[in-house]
Amino acid sequence: MPPCPAWPSGATAGPSILGTMAGDHARPSPEVVRTYDMPKPVIREAYSQNPASRRYVVDSLRKVRELCVELGIVTPLSKQIWRAFGIWG
Description:
By secondary structure, this protein is mostly helical. The chain has helices at residues 10-25, 30-35, 40-48, 51-60, 62-71, 76-84. The protein has a domain at 27-84.
């Protein structure tokens, strides 16, 4: 079956989806933040501005990234997208 032209290719959609989902899964949900009254500066310090947290996210996507490279779906453009999302390691 030929690829549907209306859908973005895996080369560009993959890092966009993974970058968004990795950010969502590596930090507490807004509901948890509200329920436990977590201050925004604490969230920033623990997740957004924390090199260890960023390294955790990059490392958690290592196998997926390596598989994408092995399958040949990492292009120069998609590599820039991986880097823009901060998930290229």
